[in-house]
Amino acid sequence: MDILAQQRDYYRQRAPEYDQWWRREGRYTLDDQAKQGWDADIAEVTRALAAFAPTGHVLELAAGTGWWTERLTAHATHITAVDASTETLAINRERTAATGQVTYRQADIFTWTPPESTFDTVFFAYWLSHVPAEHLDAFWAKVGHALRPGGRVFLIDSYHPERMPDDLQRRRLNDGREFQVVKRFWQPAELEATPGWRLTAQITAHRHVIHAHGAPAR
After folding, report:
1. Are 131 and 139 in contact, with CB atoms under 8 Å apart?
2. 136 part of a folded domain
3. What's the pLDDT at 1?
């Protein structure tokens, strides 16, 4: 199985347990000090997103189980939530459908083409680190294609000061099954040097999260 197919399968199988990681439950449990640091970082990046104010029509890529979709509903008029996994989108729908603000679209982000110049904001969380190097240019071109003139981008991802060997990581599910996924830990200077974009990147205080926002350099 190629790496992208394995990555898709991993997130499909992980859907029922994904939120355990967010809540730091089960095998993701942290000690009190580490949990406080994690919670503080998530609160920090949530405030940064609120200050960015993703209003209007928002495209969320790799929307997953809806943890961030739910937060986008506080600002956006409408959200198009795209994910390759029907399993994660089903959880997203349970979490956010009552708002009436979200359209759910099951699609492989690597092959899907968004409608041109439609969105005020493109948002993606914990996704860019899973994009292989050879797909980066096409991915960023897709983001630019989706934005209206004056549109903006906001991204969130996990942070680590060092890259993984070959930008690959072994992941394990609760039942012990293992998968290999793409995982590149981006640094602020790397994000700010993204060709064709003007991005400002920041690491949260406890260094769990990196986030960036900006617009096409045009």
Report:
1. yes
2. yes
3. 62
Is residue 210 assigned to a domain? yes
Angstrom distance (rounded) from CA 197 to CA 56: 21
Q: Which domain holds residue 157?
A: 3-54+115-216
Domain-embedded: residue 89: no
Predicted TM-score (pTM) of this structure: 0.97
pLDDT in tens, 18-40: 999 989 999 999 999 999 999 99
CB 37 within 8 A of CB 206: yes
The confidence score (pLDDT) of residue 218 equals 74
Q: Write out the two tokens for 85.
A: 């996994």
CATH assignment of the domain containing 165:
3.40.50.150
- Cβ neighbours for 26, distance < 8 A, ≥ 6 positions apart: 17, 20, 174
Specify if 129 maps to a domain: yes
According to the 3-state scheme, what is the secondary structure of the chain? CCHHHHHHHHHHHHHHHHHHHHHCCHHHCCCHHHHHHHHHHHHHHHHHHHHHCCCEEEEEECCCCCHHHHHHCCCEEEEEEEECCHHHHHHHHHHHHHHCCEEEEECCCCCCCCCCCCEEEEEEECCHHHCCHHHHHHHHHHHHHHEEEEEEEEEEEECCCCCCHHHEEEEECCCCCEEEEECCCCCHHHHHCCCCEEEEEEECCCCCEEEEEEEECC
Q: What is the pLDDT of residues 105-134, one digit of tens each?
A: 999 999 999 999 999 999 999 999 999 999
Q: How many domains does the chain have?
A: 1
